[in-house]
Structures are given as C-alpha cells and as structure tokens.
Amino acid sequence: MTDKPFSVNEALRFARHDFLNQLQLIKMNIDLARLEEAKAAIDHYTSEVKAIYELTKLNIPFTSEWLQTANWRFLGFQFNITSHIETSCNESLDEQIYNVLDQATNLLHNQLDPFVEQQLHIHIVSIPSEFRITFEATGQWESIAQEISCEPQVTLTHECKTTKKWRFHIEESKEG
To answer: In what residue span(s) does the SpoOB alpha-helical domain sit (predicted)?
Structure first.
C-alpha cells in the first residue's frame, strides 16, 4: 500500500502488467481447449474496462483516480467496480468522497486477515434523482473501532459493520 500518487510511468507499468496477466489467462484457457472459460474471461475484463470508462462521466477526478488505482495500492483486496452513471456528480464532493473511500479502505486494510480472501465492491449510482456510492467489503478482519471522519457535504449510512462484512453508502448531504 502506498499513499503517494502514482507517476504516469508507474501507472502505465501496472496497467501493462495487469493486461499481460489477463492475456495469459485467456491464452492458457484457449491452450487447454477451455473456450467457454476464455470467453468468460474476455467478458469479465470487458465489463471491468467499461466500468472504468464510465467513471469519467462523474466529473470527479480525484475519486475516479482513486477507484482506478485502488487495486494497486491495496493489494489485500480483490476490487470490483460496478456503476449506473447517467449524470455527473457535484464536483465539490470529489475530495470528500475520495477522503471517505481512502479512510475506510485504509482502516480495513490494516486489519485484514492475510489468510482469507478479501473482496471490496464499489457500486456507483449517478442519475438525475440520486447520487450514491455503496462500499461493500467481505472477508475477515479484526474489529474496527475507529469511525470514519464525516465530511460536511456527504452523508454516510451504515448497513452492516462486522468482522466479516462492512457495507455503507456515501450520498450527497441533504442538509444545508
């Protein structure tokens, strides 16, 4: 895990490495005559890329960068991003959303059980009537007593916070 931003060179190196790993998995499945698995891998990677491209519609660059590079900074998690984005987000929320996501992931990452698979799913909904980011982690970690510092323009709604699942929503605050 690193707190410093990635240089363009580092980001490209990570992206190329990930891309080559994906190609190797597809090639291996083809070599083993497992064409359905190869097709499924292609479909999976295609949907991942589409989700990343969708982030540009939000117009929140810090948060978008965090989402695109989190899997390189928090190696204990398998990241999954899904979205339904029709409209951009209030740009003034960008740094606050970034801070909440980063705080929560750091708190959790520091408590992970290294022998258990850890999943982190981020789902984004941005439509004219609603903006919401759902953070859902599953796996195994030590209890987290510390709370996330609340940002003034965003509201956090916790659904579940145990040692095996943590789920909350980030929404634009309705209060003044």
So the answer is: 8-55
